């Protein structure tokens, strides 16, 4: 497991400059940047000298830099720059660049976003104009808004993959990736390159995020990433085969798939801290109305129904993300490896993969942020101290919602795929793969029993659990159909594609959400049944699956108007489940495998000595 | 208006040390603390020397310290310490303390929360034991968990109102406020007082928050706040008259009422920035499917339906908070002034005031945080830079959800009041005041028209608007009744009060939410009709009221099972409203009156030169 992998190599990251991360919160912006750079340098040495670490980190991808130390932004080299190289470079380019990149002989940023454009990548303004006289591209930033803005690590990297509009002989062939060197081996900027830093972010640990402006910077023609498309010596553009045109997104898809795993680990981390703290934290008299309330003792916060509702929801979601993260990675690997091996049918899977990962990335990261913040809130005042761990986590969890595909845009991609599916179904093409469930017959109101009793406390788990899946699938199909119908009606009225989409955008976002939630629930259900034996573990995991599915139906009961006549029975079942889950809660969080070393949280300590920890941590303040 | 008041005195806060707040984000923790202290010292001088500022700040309460400069935590003296003095000190105590407090001759913290107890104030562990020999109280922290923890400003204040269990002759009379001096006039700690700092918080601007431990600290008996209860020289405890027992909460209620205003100003601030930026930000081709998409131009983000849905929701909520903030302040003033003037019937209003403010504080601050974060997200990557203003705002908006009454606890207070109301209704006592609406006849399904058409695009505003109010009121009554019935059933099964409440806690939270939302909607509707003339302004404000009410029904359609058969008509009406609101959006945010000086946001600039501003702000980074 990932935790075991971390434990095997974490010994390499002890001592200075790794051991004073708890003082980072006191540093000035510059001091923090310098400290992080020092750590990056040391980490580079470790990477070069430890084959075990290199293998776990790069071949097996079981540890991240951020798992091992308070890192700053060296990770981007491995999660964005390197995968792009691996999948988009020609064989010749790989021979030239890959070994050095893997060994950190140079460090690369992923320089796509500009001041003026993030989501609309096709409108990037940076230009790469082919100069046939010298066989070079001229990389240039023609406007203020064309400045590269946001790339992680770019302030202190030596290279970058720069995305720019490729011009040859006066024709624009759209945006492409180019290898551009920012600094020479003395660290000085290359001619025409201006690199800077963009200032403090809401996540205080982010320092090294950069901007770059290019003034007629020349790179060899060789530096156009050329696995799928090329420019000849004569300036002729040879396009990628149509089927492979989407393969240029495989790097971004890899990151998005990784972000589903990130949603898991952030949620799991926050919920571990919350469960541990709220078992220790006692607040509120057991008998508040008695004369001698003080003597009645106090409740552990985790014994309150409302906090169970919230905390176990996050717990269930963490497991759900985990199961879907595997699914996403496997789906991605199947398509990527097929395409890389030259299998043409594998390329057919690209649109579906893209739509699936777009939805997963959007709703897992969005929900993870919500849940981490909910866990932070349930810790009361203590969740405000950075020493709690959950505070910083809530900050960190916002980034993936926006970066690497802004969440609204990605949801719309999924929605477009769903509309296509519905159109095919209208033409009697049976949906397959990730949307095969849309073939299922619609749920009938009778299935829900009188007053929703089929989801009530009296119903058997064995019937409730598949019914929930059917309900979520049915909802998704209905939303997709409604979306497509609304869109088609706008088109029939004469709207263009974009106009029509804009008229149904609220619904489109929801349809993408419904589809993704169904997928998460199905993976959750199926993986538990496939990967566990009958017994208490399976029961505990199925209870979590049931809880989160019931909560999703209960909180969105309005999506089931006409099917559901009453939601009270669902709430009653939820409340009973909460009581059943309570005895397993600690074990289920322990199961994530976080140690004190991972959590770095005064509240999440395994030994429960939270008050001592809070006090001692506060004593570190240089003001004391 | 508040903005005018700010404009009148902001000139006093120019020049050093007030003019370098934009560099605060680069400072170390210690540097920031020192800078904030410097500003507090200067602000104190201004307060002492400017009668106009003192009047606007203290008599008229139209400006806050935080409105005028990047303040740190001097504000707590005025919002917590001083109101407590004003309402809980005896006349003699006022003569001794009030003038000095108003003039900032000393600075006081509000030292209630301890390491071990926040919400359960009755379980505070600090003791104040009367010593009849010396006519003194001995203030003592007997345990680690009894350390005062969290009080804002406490690290650098001279005094504090310390809450402690009052013991006399071996009897505990519950917790009371005591005036305790922390430091002498040289700034040295008084004997037995240990004060420290608790470390970095998620809001990086919070430095001066402290802890305090007392070792047998002696204060005169005089220092027990004695307006309502006293201890005699002989150690006899004279309790407050029962009716006034809740009056000791009036200080907290004042803060909570102020927090409704804070929810308004944070939401309004964030939505102003979002509207301005998203009118400038163009992203996404108008014709993305055309061969020459680039030439089609790009949409302003505010022209996308989904972003309108989110941004106008926040806009409508900001206005709703504003209208309810007045209501809360007036309600509070009526009761407080009545009680202070010795009017006994005014004291009867305390429980209702308490329940109303508890709900308002909870759901306004909770929703404000959600909305500010949503606005930050809609700015895409730029919302991550602290220079955007919205990033810090999202951080700041979390604090009021927890501080001065944790939101869950407060919601439960409101829920208890609702249960009492239902019990009285069952006994045929007509509900009055804030719950009078519960007398209204239930909504009948027919009122909603076929397929929810009565809320659809074809219905007349004049019928939709009151219907929405009826629906929200009906929902609140139903939830309150359901809650009371569930609670009563548990009691009938033998549960104690606390056990029964814990069995229905999820529902209780929602019932409090429904009641508060109804109240917000009603105030919104009524104030617009009462305070505006017929005309475009009234129309624009009523559209916002209608929008947010429709959104609340649409997003919670599951609360109307059995009444509503279809929510599609509601969404269609919402989408049409969004188009109608769009032309007013800029004017409606300008109406809040924020200037660039207030917003301190690269994105919210009135002149729209956002890219220049972002770039220039980044250049300030000491790394550049
Ligand atoms: C911490 C962090 C690290 C990053 N690291 C990198 C990096 O390493 N390399 C890199 O290249 N970039 C990086 N980015 C940039 C990131 O990829 C962009 O922020 C992201 O793609 C969104 O683009 P944007 O910021 O320009 O927002 P915009 O695209 O301008 O979005 C603003 C708003 O417009 C809306 N919007 C835009 N288009 C549409 C549409 N067609 N329909 C409806 N709504 C629309 C969005 O939903 C959003 O609400 C990073 C960003 C952050 C915050
Ligand atoms: C920035 C900031 C500034 C502050 N300033 C001050 C100040 O100036 N002076 C001061 O005295 N204090 C101050 N506080 C403390 C603040 O008032 C407390 O944090 C707040 O009252 C909550 O108490 P707690 O932190 O002990 O949380 P707890 O009460 O321990 O709450 C933890 C969790 O338990 C739950 N819980 C507790 N009791 C119950 C119950 N009966 N039923 C169900 N759930 C329950 C809560 O919902 C919460 O989820 C400040 C706090 C912050 C964050």
TrEMBL record, chains A, B:
Sequence ranges assigned to domain Acyl-coenzyme A oxidase N-terminal in this UniProt record: 13-107
Keywords per UniProt: FAD, Fatty acid metabolism, Flavoprotein, Lipid metabolism, Oxidoreductase, Peroxisome
Annotated GO CC locations: peroxisome
Compartment annotation: Peroxisome
Binding site for FAD: 113
Transmembrane segment boundaries: none
Cofactor: FAD
Active-site residues, record numbering mapped to chain: 404 (proton acceptor)
Main subcellular location: other
UniProt-listed Pfam families: ACOX, ACOX_C_alpha1, Acyl-CoA_ox_N
Record-annotated Acyl-CoA oxidase C-terminal domain positions: 469-624
InterPro entries per record: ACOX_C_alpha1, Acyl-CoA_ox_N, Acyl-CoA_Oxase/DH_mid-dom_sf, Acyl-CoA_oxidase, Acyl-CoA_oxidase_C, AcylCo_DH-like_C, AcylCoA_DH/ox_N_sf, AcylCoA_DH/oxidase_NM_dom_sf
GO BP terms: fatty acid beta-oxidation using acyl-CoA oxidase; lipid homeostasis
Molecular-function GO terms, alphabetical: acyl-CoA oxidase activity; FAD binding; fatty acid binding
Recorded family membership: Belongs to the acyl-CoA oxidase family.
Name of the featured protein: Acyl-coenzyme A oxidase
């Amino acid at each position: 497991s990932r935790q075991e992998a971390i434990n095997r190599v974490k010994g390499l990251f002890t001592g200075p400059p790794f051991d004073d991360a708890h003082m980072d919160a006191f540093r000035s912006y510059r001091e923090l940047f310098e400290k992080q750079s020092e750590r990056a340098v040391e980490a580079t040495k470790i990477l070069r000298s430890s084959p075990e670490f290199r293998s776990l980190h790069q071949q097996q991808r079981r540890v991240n830099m951020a798992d091992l130390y308070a890192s700053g932004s060296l990770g981007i080299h491995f999660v964005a720059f390197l995968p792009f190289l691996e999948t988009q470079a020609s064989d010749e380019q790989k021979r030239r660049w890959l070994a050095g990149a893997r060994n950190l002989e140079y460090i690369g940023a992923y320089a796509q976003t500009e001041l003026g454009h993030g989501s609309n990548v096709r409108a990037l303004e940076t230009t790469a104009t082919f100069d046939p006289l010298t066989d070079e591209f001229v990389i240039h930033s023609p406007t203020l808004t064309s400045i590269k803005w946001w790339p992680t690590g770019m302030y202190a990297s030596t290279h970058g993959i720069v995305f720019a509009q490729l011009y040859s002989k006066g024709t624009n062939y759209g945006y492409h990736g180019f290898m551009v060197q920012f600094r020479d081996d003395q660290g000085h900027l290359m001619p025409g390159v201006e690199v800077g830093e963009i200032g403090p972010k809401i996540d205080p640990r982010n320092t090294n995020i950069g901007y770059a402006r290019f003034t007629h910077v020349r790179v060899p023609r060789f530096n156009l990433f050329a696995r799928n498309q090329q420019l000849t010596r004569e300036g002729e553009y040879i396009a990628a085969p149509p089927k492979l045109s989407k393969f240029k997104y495989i790097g971004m898809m890899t990151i998005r798939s990784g972000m589903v795993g990130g949603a898991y680990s952030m949620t799991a981390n926050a919920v571990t801290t919350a469960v541990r703290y709220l078992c220790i934290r006692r607040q509120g008299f057991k008998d508040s109305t008695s004369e001698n309330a003080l003597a009645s003792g106090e409740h552990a916060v985790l014994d309150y129904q409302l906090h169970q509702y919230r905390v176990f929801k996050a717990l269930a979601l963490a497991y759900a993300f985990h199961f879907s993260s595997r699914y996403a990675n496997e789906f991605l690997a199947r398509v990527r490896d097929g395409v890389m091996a030259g299998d043409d049918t594998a390329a057919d899977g690209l649109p579906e993969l893209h739509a699936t990962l777009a939805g997963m990335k959007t709703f897992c990261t969005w929900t993870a942020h919500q849940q981490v913040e909910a866990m932070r809130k349930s810790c009361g005042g203590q969740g405000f101290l950075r020493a709690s761990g959950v505070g910083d986590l809530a900050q960190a969890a916002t980034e993936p919602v926006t970066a690497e595909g802004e969440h609204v845009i990605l949801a719309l991609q999924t929605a477009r795929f769903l509309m296509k599916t519905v159109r095919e179904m209208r033409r009697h093409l049976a949906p397959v793969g990730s949307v095969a469930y849309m073939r299922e017959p619609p749920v009938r109101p009778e299935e829900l029993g009188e007053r929703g009793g089929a989801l009530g406390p009296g119903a058997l788990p064995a019937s409730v659990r598949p019914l929930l899946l059917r309900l979520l699938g049915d909802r998704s199909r209905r939303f997709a159909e409604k979306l497509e119908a609304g869109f088609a009606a706008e088109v029939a009225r004469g709207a263009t594609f974009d106009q029509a989409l804009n008229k149904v955008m609220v619904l489109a976002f929801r349809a993408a959400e419904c589809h993704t939630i169904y997928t998460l629930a199905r993976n959750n259900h199926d993986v538990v049944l496939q990967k566990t034996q009958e017994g208490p573990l399976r029961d505990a995991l199925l209870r979590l699956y049931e809880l989160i599915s019931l909560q999703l139906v209960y909180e969105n009961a309005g999506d089931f108007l006409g099917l559901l006549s009453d939601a009270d029975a669902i709430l009653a079942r939820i409340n009973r489940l909460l009581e059943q889950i309570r005895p397993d809660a600690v074990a289920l969080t322990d199961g994530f495998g976080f140690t004190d070393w991972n959590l770095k949280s005064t509240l999440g300590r395994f030994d429960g000595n939270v008050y001592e920890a809070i006090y001692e941590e506060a004593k570190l303040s240089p003001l004391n």
